[in-house]
Amino acid sequence: MIVLCGFSVSNYYNKVKLALLEKNVPFTEEVVKTMSKDPAVLSASPLGKIPYIRTPHGPLSESQTILNYLELAYPNPPLLPADAFAAAKVHELTTYIDLHLELVARELYGKAFFGGEISEANAARVRKQLEKNIAAFKTLAKFSPYVAGDTFTQADCAAWVSLPLVAMASKAVLGEDLLTAAGVDWRAYGKVIAERPSAQRVTADKKADAAKMAEAAAAALAAKV
Predict the structure, then answer these.
(1) Please, which residues bridge with residue 149 across strands?
(2) How many Å apart are CA 101 and CA 95, to the nearest integer?
(3) Cα 134 → chain centroid
(4) Are 3 and 30 within 8 A, CB to CB?
(5) Domain regions of the chain by residue span
(6) What is the signed CA dihedral for 45, 102, 163, 6, rounded to 10 degrees?
């Protein structure tokens, strides 16, 4: 059986979890913090990144690599079109979401979500890059109703977990939800995906785990007082 390692607050963890649930692949979960120095973790994910999975054949890291493995190992139901070019277009969209939207917006997360800081110059640079990349993403995205067209695909596993972060981070740090400003109705899209049982499971688990983390943090703080 596959073991999904990481934690449910991570969007990339949930990208993989959503794919596992959509494909009805049996799996268990193991909590692993990001950037762990544990030799056992590093033997599975050499950079200490999450998520990674353990399979009967060995470990595998990087979310998109994992999704591609799942597509080959568990082909039904498919999360990629059978046509080679159509499948490549889904990969293209996923690359834009992961690398050209989420990874760029990630520079804002420290201030947006964790009370960190970012210089005005860096914030302006991120804004300029995001505006450019969102415009490019719009030329590829369909939202009819799914991001790649009329069928749920790997691109939705990426978009549903990451587009809200891009929007919220840009709103918090730059004063404007750059996705909405560019005409990307990510909220309406998110509601479509949220109706799927897989997404409901991911959301419920994320909320439950976030509550447990908050309780643990409060208990640790109280113990120090």
Answers:
(1) 146
(2) 9
(3) 17
(4) yes
(5) 2-78, 84-194
(6) 20
Q: Tell me if the domain spanning 2-78 has CATH number 3.30.70.260.
A: no
What own/partner pairs with CB < 8 Å and gap ≥ 24 does 199-202 have? 199/18, 199/160, 201/21, 202/8, 202/14, 202/17, 202/18, 202/21, 202/161
Confidence of residue 209 (pLDDT cuts 50, 70, 90): confident
> Tens of pLDDT along 136-192?
999 999 999 999 999 999 999 999 999 999 999 999 999 999 999 999 999 999 999
Task: State the CATH architecture for 84-194.
Answer: Up-down Bundle (1.20)
Answer whether 65's CB lies under 8 Å from 53's CB: no
As a whole number of angstroms, the distance between CA 95 and CA 35 comes to: 23
Decide if 2-78 and 84-194 have a common fold: no
Q: List the structure tokens of 24.
A: 């009805």
- The answer to whether the beta carbons of residues 190 and 143 sit under 8 Å apart is no
Give the H/E segment covering residue 137.
helix 120-140
Choose among 41, 62, 52: nearest CA to 7. Answer: 52
Q: Alpha-carbon distance 159 to 31, whole Å?
A: 23
| pTM reported for the whole predicted model | 0.94
Looking at the chain, the whole-number percentage of residues with pLDDT higher than 90 is 90
As to burial, measured by CB atoms within 10 angstroms (0-12 exposed, 13-18 middle, 19+ buried), residue 17 is: buried
What is the rounded distance in angstroms from the CA atom of residue 1 to the CA atom of residue 22? 16
